[in-house]
Amino acid sequence: MESNLLLCVLLLIPAFTSSDFLLTHVRNIKKRNADNDLVVNGIEIYSMKIDSKVTSRFAHNVITSRAVNRGNVSKEIFFDVELPKTAFITNFSMTIDGVTYPGIIKEKETAKKQYEKAVSRGQTAGLVKASGRKTEKFTVSANIKAASKVTFELIYEELLKRKFGKYEMFIKVKPKQLVKDFEIEVDIFEPQGITELEAEGTFITNELQNTIKKSFSGKKGHVSFKPTLDQQRTCENCSQSVLDGDFTVRYDVKRTTTDNLQIINGYFVHFFAPTNLPKLSKNVIFVLDTSGSMSGRPMEQTKEALLKILDDIKEDDFFNFILFESEISTWKEALIKATPENLDEARKFVQHISVGGLTNLHGGLMRGIDILNAAHEENLVPKRSASIIIMLTDGQPNVGVSDTQEIEKAVKKAIDGRYPLYNLGFGSGVDYSFLEKMALENKGLARRIYPDSDAALQLQGFYDEVSNPMLIDVELNYPENEISDLTTNSFKHFYDGSEIVVAGRFVDSNQNHLTVDVRGEGANDALSYSTQQDAEQTAQAFQEQQYIFGDYIERLWAYLTIEQLLEKRITATGEEKENLTAEALALSLKYKFVTPLTSMVVTKPEENEEGIADKPTEGAGMFTAPILGSPVNYGYGSPPPWYTSVDGDPHFIISVPQKKDAICFNINENPGTILNLINDPVTGITVNGELIGDKRTNSEANIQNSYFGKLGIANKHMDLRLTVTPEKITIQNGNEKSGFTWLDSVTLQQAGLTLIINSKRNLVLSMGSGASFVIVLHQVWKKHPLHQDFLGLYTLKSDKLSEQTHGLLGQFFRPIDFTIFEIHPGSDPKKPDATMIVKNNELTVTRGWQKDYRRDPKHGVDIPCWFVHDNGAGLIDGVHTDYIVSSLF
């Protein structure tokens, strides 16, 4: 799991257009009341409070917002708040004029049925969506009468993780209007005692610095932030709020012993964080994607990070670099020691890394594994050392072994549990679920690297987390006959500054003592000892009852168990996956957590409408309606990785990554018509396609389907032409001409061109600037009375073309934004209609599916999208006939 589960909340409400304000606020269009700058569009939020209580790392957070309608008519009031992705919502309620409407946690399938029922009534949905690197946004609204008040209350819980020697609690602050009574209050209770406490905000100015109050003594810590109205203003007489950013609390605890065991009411939690151990030397293989799509800023940032990492590598460490594009290359044939001379040579190597070609991910990863395995077998590295593989890629495998399941099996077999694999996915073009599953199968994790200005810092930051291994093969063993349910208790590595947490349930709920055996391998010798704790010791430590919320150890155990069960589901199949799902669902319902398997149903006062709150894993289907201008997954399946394509009859799919969604349209033209798909005057690359039809008109439907039967790809700067039909592939370079059939398996590389033919399936083409395409071959039964063979085109690395690129596909290589609202039933009950605003045009669109045949040319994969009717009218520039050309080149 990315450790960052996505959260989706569905509120079934009458159709409305929404906005994207962040922390608790009301929708407004910036219309300010001149007499009262606390009132925005008739609504005043007079109180907003975030109250957090942390007990032994487990945080219980209550967000309360109170608002009043100062207008003369009913108003729709929005409650928006950003939560950490690792958090689980446990409760939500809204109180309107003294009447409370609570949320109820139910199985997710129930929510889905309610959603479909609501769509049939013309209702739409609120949502929670991913809104940043660390957060996801909860949104709900209520229609409030004039002079009425509403109170929203949201409760969520999370286990704070220790990183770089500190626990961190993150609160997003962005009310977007002045709030008379704004307050953040954090109370921390740690039975081990608190050694340091800090709080900071990215929005904190010099004037606000003194408003952060923090103190700690013994086991207690306290942080508060309560700015006055004047302190919230961006300037002396301004009505805009300066509260816009991240508020972070960090702390650590005393560690007089390596372990801290706590026992309460039949449950226990064990915190393990040894200090003052000598660091293990490490053996690191960096497997780096150097395909054409990494050119420019991505590779510059990667080099910047690698050079800083080389400065931090210790002389006792061993390392190597593996580069993969179409071909595989290595810096050295074996792991080498990080001597000053070798590090200098490595820096020169990194500075001269070049990019080009396609993405042979399997080849690069397997080469790295082979080198690391050989180092251990030949005793080239110390026996007491920690080995890791770190792979960075920005794309998907498209040459060599490209089937992700085959890659997963090969990698798992080769690593064989000996060391962790860490996969870093750069940008939006990666198949993150594949990277995550492969990492988890090999005792590692996956992490997204966002292509922003700080990408180099993100890369270096991840390395810093794993750069100081203290122990390997750590096991925390408990008496089997005493413990019935135990979270993960064996760990491949323990890193400096982190913490291992294990929780469990006793067979006998009255048991009040526990002994644990700790085992691990350190730099100099084995770690082996036993420790014990009884419930009386815990009770003595917890006499300050005001800091304890309910049975916190039991809830911590449930939280950690659900989190790990969901993680195991990623790699499980068949009956095992069903059992994991059933167990996680039962716990989610019992402890009232909104997880990917449960939903929160909220009954609203307007005609007993019901809302649904979901928390799906990344890539899971979400049944939601949009918040205006927000990157939203609109449901009915997983969002596609970023690409554009045309396939089938002919169906165009335009991926919109910032929305995590897609738009699609068809072009209906006669056989023989040639359409311009891509035209880039800067790089000289053009792609045109000629339509073919069925062998005869379908008499029953009285239609003539059309498909692409011939594609022409040219680079005029290189005097290069490629003609592709379902029968053959012809390359003309100047006066030289060569040809292949689809029966061939070919890898061809020449100046400016890489061509791979995967027999009877597809061909992968990279040319010029690094732009990459996949052409899929569709073959039908030769004696089929109606259909004939045809082609599909998928653009994978179109960002290497210039901003002047145009054509039916090319115009969408630049970012496109759209807004969906007024979702309502369509002619097909399974495909609702909606209104789309795109390119300043208002269109009626339909929710549907198109097929992606890149990996499965026979069956394809359904891609959800919003379908634009009438040959893409209003979406494409001009009209579709503008793209008809006279010849293939």
UniProtKB/TrEMBL annotation:
Subcellular location: Secreted
Pfam families: ITI_HC_C, VIT, VWA
UniProt entry tagged with the keyword tRNA processing: no
InterPro entries referenced in this protein's UniProt entry, alphabetically: ITI_HC_C, ITIH, VIT, VWF_A, vWFA_dom_sf
Ranges where the VWFA domain occurs: 283-466
Residues annotated as signal peptide: 1-19
Cellular component GO terms, alphabetical: extracellular region
Record keywords: Glycoprotein, Protease inhibitor, Proteoglycan, Secreted, Serine protease inhibitor, Signal
UniProt cross-references to SUPFAM superfamilies, sorted A to Z: vWA-like
One MF term in the entry's GO annotations: serine-type endopeptidase inhibitor activity
Gene Ontology biological process terms, A to Z: hyaluronan metabolic process
Main location as per UniProt: secreted
Keyword Zinc-finger: no
UniProt domain VIT: residue ranges: 29-158
CDD domains: vWA_interalpha_trypsin_inhibitor (cd01461)
Top-level taxonomic group: Eukaryota
Job of this protein: May act as a carrier of hyaluronan in serum or as a binding protein between hyaluronan and other matrix protein, including those on cell surfaces in tissues to regulate the localization, synthesis and degradation of hyaluronan which are essential to cells undergoing biological processes.
Family membership noted in the UniProt record: Belongs to the ITIH family.
Name of the protein described by the UniProt record: Inter-alpha-trypsin inhibitor heavy chain H3
The species this protein was found in: Malurus cyaneus samueli
